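> Could you send the Type II toxin-antitoxin system HicB family antitoxin prediction when you get a chance?

Sure thing. Input:
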Amino acid sequence: MKTIKFVYWQDKDFWLGYLQDYPDFMTQGQTLEELRENLKDIFAEIVQGHIPLVTHVGELVVA
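Output:
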């Protein structure tokens, strides 16, 4: 089982969010659980290569 982080917030009647490592793919849900399921679906699509041109977040070590 893999754990991935996501960023989320509530805006009126919807929960919005995106995967921390893939901020270009935002989704929403009427409940927090629905948002989580939508984020899992997006992750699966990315991993399976069904979404083209995926950008990534990296880290740099600087002095």
